[in-house]
Amino acid sequence: MENNPFIEEIISQMTVEEKAAQMLQVPVSVIGMDAAREWAKKGVGSFLNVLGDDMKELAEISSKESRLKIPTIFGIDAVHGHCLNREATIFPSQLTMACTWNRDLVEKIGHVTATEVATEGIQWTFSPILCLARDARWGRTNETFGEDKFLAGELGVSIIKGYQGEDLGDDTAVLACAKHFIAYGEATGARDSYDTEITMRKIRDEFLPPFKKAVDAGCATFMTAYGSIDGTPLTANKKALRGLLRDELGFDGFLVTDWDTVNALINRQRVCDNHGDASRVAAEAGNDMIMSTLEFYDAVIEQVKSGKLEESYLDEAVRHILTIKYRLNLWEKPLKQGVPGSIGCDEHHEVALESARESVVLLKNKNNILPLGKNKDIKKIAVIGPNADDIRAQYGDWTYFTHPVPGIEKEPQRPYVTLLEGVKELAQGEDIEVVYSYGCSVNRREYYKGNFPGIPEFMEQCYADNDHDAPFYEEMPLISEAASAARDADVIVLALGDNYNCAGEYNDRADLNLSGMQEALVRVLETLHVPIITVLISSKPLAIPQVVKKSDAVICAFNGGMYGGKAIAEAIFGKINPCGRLPISFPVMTGQVPVYYNQFPGWHEGRYVDCPKDPLFAFGEGLSYTRYEYSDLKFNKDTLTVTVTVKNAGEVKGTEVVQVYIDDKFSSVMTAVKNLAGFERVELGAGESKTVSIKLEEEAFTVVLPDETRVIEPGDFDILVGHSSKNEDLLKVTVTF
Ligand code: GLC
């Protein structure tokens, strides 16, 4: 990357203090506006978590009052819409949007999000997460695109394109941020920010591909992960940050640390015992911008002035930052313009509804009980459960509920549609009575205290009397109330799952069973012998084999955003034909994780003696109100192209997600029993057939050797094509290279 004379001129004028300030990202939500104003005058590089007039004031000070008038940049976690702004469009979570397997739609979500973030004036979103969620105990599973590197890479590129558009200088373009580099979700025991016992070979094979695609897509920023690789924190990991990301992948944007990770080198990971060493180590490892560690400023200045750290490290970091600011055209427009009036506009809400509809995954439909709309005997529906009418549970993480920006209210902001509201709306048109009962709580303590007005008085007393671990037996009256409500219903719609206190950063789980009295609620409802349609509104897969067994139908909705409830109700009534497919496997029980589909072979018997071999639900799985038949599978070895004929053999139109997996039969290092290598969505009318062509990447046929080189080894490869990762759903053709 040749040097830009405009930037070189600025750097030549900067003092070491100004370089240190430019490398800093300051959390306004922590230090307040008075201190933030002072940092703006010092020429701080960036602020985070500030909106509205406060943000505009800081932008003004930076670009007009600081000595060199270098514009500052604002970052925010707009990770499924600009959700820290109550007025904004709130999309399904990243895991939920991954259920769509729809590149174009995910790009559209990115573009709408960027437009609303830019309309706020902000130039940068800390999104997408490209970590893989291969152990659902991890609290941040909901923020990922699921367990697979190919799906995560494809959808990651889509949303980055949506965020950044064609030119970073455009009014609606914002910087994307591929995070968290690298293998953050793979920590031992799925413990957030903990150590990952992994080799560089495994990192290259499994975790690098999505980040490589992000670099190739021009992602402007990356974020360093909290954790460590075999004892070396990523913040201090020169081999990962400089060797892999910069030198090998050719990343030319800037790298920001995660929150206060420079201090974490001292107070969590204990690889440094003072701020000077930690700041020097972070700069030498290749971190360009330091998030929230304010001590970095004085410490790094002292390191340079005492000769312990070459000032050239600061020059290099500042160069990376200013180059991106230059590409944002910040000196002309210190704040983004966006599209005035577009935040929360109808057109954007339409995209949120479309996303929610396409993310609904039908997992069980015994005797085709669904869709209800065709069954005229249904006169009364009982909507039961803690997540049927709780927008906080439906939204999940990273909204104005979970990460409030100072000055922003936390009360729910309309419009949104919960499952109960969606069912009521559609039942009205069918002259069906709807009754509702709460049933039981999910995680009463911190979650409900003061957060959930209208909770029955006696629940407050329960909260006051019992400690966190009490099994909530005092909720039995709620359960019996629900049973009474459902007793003479024709069908029960049961909304279970988790809420944001059971998920997210700092909230890993050791137990993936349903929390609270939810299993008890199901057992009581089962005694009524009323058909049960269970809807999982949760941040992640949960171990629910008994619930699945007791349910006539099961829908996985995860966190569907502002119209999640509407989309689920439409699927239940048959207004839409579900087309979602799982981006992550469901475990039968907690002890079965990691249960991701692309396991290595070689496990004796391939199962635990006390757990079935297969997952509860498989990667890529999802039913429809129609059925698809595959035939004529062919593979062109020269063009690496798969062709297959898909027929809609049912009576209603639908969208199929054709999936292509590759199994490298024999190789000098072990490879997974199959790996996703391609997918395409195809819309088919009733009875219609289409031939689908999917071109595969050469990389899909490679292995990473112990010397960390990636090669294609001669031999046989099975090309597997079909409806899900399950062998019974796949046609096979074998090719020899
Ligand atoms: C958080 C998260 C990161 C987020 C950042 C700023 O701790 O790890 O994903 O972007 O801090 O909020």
Structural description of this entry:
The protein has 737 residues and is α/β, with parallel strands linked by helices. Among the domains are: 352-574, Glycoside hydrolase family 3 C-terminal domain (Rossmann fold); 628-736, Immunoglobulin-like (Sandwich). The chain is built from 22 helices and 26 strands. The strands form seven sheets. A six-stranded mixed β-sheet has the order 12-17-16-15-13-14, with helices on both faces. A five-stranded parallel β-sheet has the order 4-3-2-1-11. A four-stranded antiparallel β-sheet has the order 21-20-25-26. Strand 23 and strand 24 form a beta hairpin. Helix 6 (103-120) packs across helix 7 and helix 19 (476-486) packs parallel to helix 20 (518-526). The model is unreliable at 445-456 (pLDDT under 50). The structure holds alpha-D-glucopyranose.
Architecture blueprint of SSEs:
Elements: H1 5-13, H2 16-22, E1 24-27, H3 28-42, E2 46-48, H4 52-64, E3 73-76, H5 94-98, H6 103-120, E4 124-125, H7 149-164, E5 177-181, E6 195-196, H8 200-216, E7 221-224, E8 228-229, E9 232-233, H9 238-248, E10 254-256, H10 261-267, H11 275-285, E11 290-291, H12 295-305, H13 311-327, H14 346-359, E12 361-365, E13 380-384, H15 391-395, H16 419-429, E14 433-437, H17 444-448, H18 457-465, H19 476-486, E15 491-497, H20 518-526, E16 532-537, H21 545-550, E17 553-556, H22 564-573, E18 628-636, E19 641-648, E20 654-664, E21 675-684, E22 689-695, E23 703-704, E24 710-711, E25 716-722, E26 730-736
Parallel strand pairs: 1-2, 1-11, 2-3, 3-4, 5-7, 6-8, 7-10, 13-14, 13-15, 15-16, 16-17
Antiparallel strand pairs: 8-9, 12-17, 18-19, 19-22, 20-21, 20-25, 23-24, 25-26
Helix pairs in contact: 2-12, 2-13, 3-4, 6-7, 6-14, 7-8, 10-11, 11-12, 14-22, 16-22, 19-20
Bound molecules: alpha-D-glucopyranose (GLC).
